[in-house]
Amino acid sequence: MKNTTLMTLDPEKLRAAMRAWSAGVTVVTAVHEGHKHGMTVNSFTSISLEPAMITISLRVSTRTHELVSKSGAFGLTILSAEQSDISNLFSGQVAGAEDRFANLKTETMVTGSPLIAGGLAWMDCRVVQTFDAGMNTLFIAEVLAAHEANDGPPLIYHNRKYWNLSEI
Description:
Elements: H1 11-18, E1 23-24, E2 26-32, E3 35-41, E4 44-48, E5 53-59, H2 63-71, E6 73-78, H3 84-90, E7 106-107, E8 115-116, E9 121-133, E10 136-148, E11 156-158, E12 161-163
Antiparallel strand pairs: 1-11, 2-3, 2-6, 4-5, 5-10, 6-9, 7-8, 9-10, 11-12
């Protein structure tokens, strides 16, 4: 077997290349022993309809990661175009916002994870498998409940800015 040296790409080069990828914006939330937290996430995808499964990726050092790991569950809200302020809040861009849920209307479904009112859709999920992925953990989850809450345009993120979606 040939011994090869692995070359690691500079993270800034990958970050710059990923700016070309457009994605919808979600907020992932979790609750454990009365503590709740959430964060803006765009690393989310559906992986199976039967059984209903999705995957998310969370940075290991975050409070949301800790709560998802401990509770084994999370809620996911797909944000509408009118919710860029909520995306900014849950991405930590709002100074002094210790309680990200203050003044927000939330609902719960099965797991008790908070789901944000006004989102396009909600998914309530139970973690079934995890994988270490560098500085992140990849969570594979069964969707226990889903609800389409609104029929409006999604919040889109591209090249470090929010965009409106329009039909071609």
